[in-house]
Amino acid sequence: MGLESELKDLSSKQPKIQLPDSTHDDRPLLKPDSNIQELEKKFAAYVRNDVYGAMGRGHLPLKEKLLLGIALVTLLPLRVIFGMTLVVVYYLICRICTLFSAPNREEEQDDYAHLGGWRRSVIVRSGRFLSRSLLFVVGFYWISETRKDSASTQENSKNEGNHLSEEQERPGAIVSNHVSYLDILYHMSSSFPSFVAKRSVAKIPLVGLISKCLGCVYVQRESKSSDFKGVAGVVTDRVHEAHQNKSAPMMMLFPEGTTTNGDYLLPFKTGAFLAGAPVVPVILRYPYQRFSPAWDSITGVRHVVLLLCQFVNHMEVIQLPIYYPSQQEKDDPKQYANNVRRLMATEGNLILSDIGLAEKRIYHAALNVSLLELQIVEEHCISVEKGHDRGGRRLSSAS
């Protein structure tokens, strides 16, 4: 069943909004939506469990409201100013380093990832430093990083032989679970890899040039070029190149294809594994007490504002050893992807989930419908309490 038909079914199953009789205001205002509760069980990978609730619109306790109010007028402006300053500074560095240099436009891409000499060195070193500085400004003062040994990866390495040269041992890609846009900042500060991004990102002021210096592979779903390989082909070539050439930027891929609440691991797409090159699995966790940094069922602007209003944010990183695929895994990228996924779930204590982006859209649609119903009923109840009917007319008092 397609996404469109699923959304139609979902809409048809939504309970009709039945407003209480305006002359009788002694009924309970609202009851929990059982349909949403069922969806939360089914789509648990996208459910927010923090104080702010679904879509960041939950009812806050008084203490949280006070803390949020203080942060809105003190912490938020300072962090916005310092954060924008860091972005502008790095943009100027990238602009200077790319002066009189033409970007690489092979395979309908547009990037400066293959600059050499001092230009590339300055871009990478300043990028790593300023990315970590930006995380510090956002509230990630300490990042717990753990390098973990895994019997599975060590056994795989032995299967491939112990006489590999340093160049051959170099991984072609980093694969990570995807929880938030903050993942990108961490990986920039750690290894400064290339990412996959939408074509529109290249046109965003400031960020566009930075993404080109990262060597982003831009997603272009439609192309009139007859020899266009598609994103998978470009990514595979980049992974091959990074594996064979240590001066080439490594690819950073989120094989889940979308973000979760950080407790689950979705099915992996095979793009990172088509080249059959070794990969570095990295697991990101964001422990929290009040607001979860996970970007799951909340709008971007609301998420940024609430994140910047948290006095301290936490991040934990687990880096597993290089995973060397067996010959069978090289021949079957899907098996390769599934084995890496199971390893990451085991080492990171993550729950395997079989849902994907389509289910996430259905869950978001259901939340929006539920929010609309909630607003309509609450507005009606408020009007009843004030003694007005739905048309705004004053209700006559009983004699």
Describe the overall structure.
Strands 1-8-7-2-5 form a five-stranded mixed β-sheet, covered by helices on one side. Strands 3-4 form a two-stranded parallel ribbon. The protein has helices spanning 3-13, 34-42, 62-73, 75-97, 117-138, 151-160, 166-169, 182-190, 207-214, 231-244, 300-308, 327-331, 333-348, 357-385; strands at residues 143-147, 173-176, 196-198, 217-219, 251-253, 264-265, 279-285, 315-319, 351-352. It is built from 14 helices and nine strands. The chain folds into two domains: 3-43 and 362-385, no CATH class; 63-159 and 169-354, Glycerol-3-phosphate (1)-acyltransferase (3-Layer(aba) Sandwich), CATH 3.40.1130. It is of the alpha/beta class and 399 residues long.
CATH class of the largest domain equals: Alpha Beta
Total number of strands: 9
Structural class: alpha/beta
Helix content: 40-55%
Mean pLDDT: 81
Number of helices: 14
Distance between the termini: 58 Å
Could you say what the CATH architecture of the largest domain is?
Answer: 3-Layer(aba) Sandwich
Written as H for each helix and E for each strand, in order along the chain, the element string is HHHHHEHHEHEHEHEEEHEHHEH
Compute the gyration radius: what is it? 25 Å
What does the oligomeric state look like here?
single chain
Strand content: 5-15%
| CATH-defined topology of the largest domain | Glycerol-3-phosphate (1)-acyltransferase
Query: The biggest beta sheet, please?
Result: 5 strands, mixed
> Which residues form runs of ≥5 with pLDDT under 50?
1-32, 156-167, 224-228, 395-399
What is the domain tally?
A: 2
Rough outline: globular
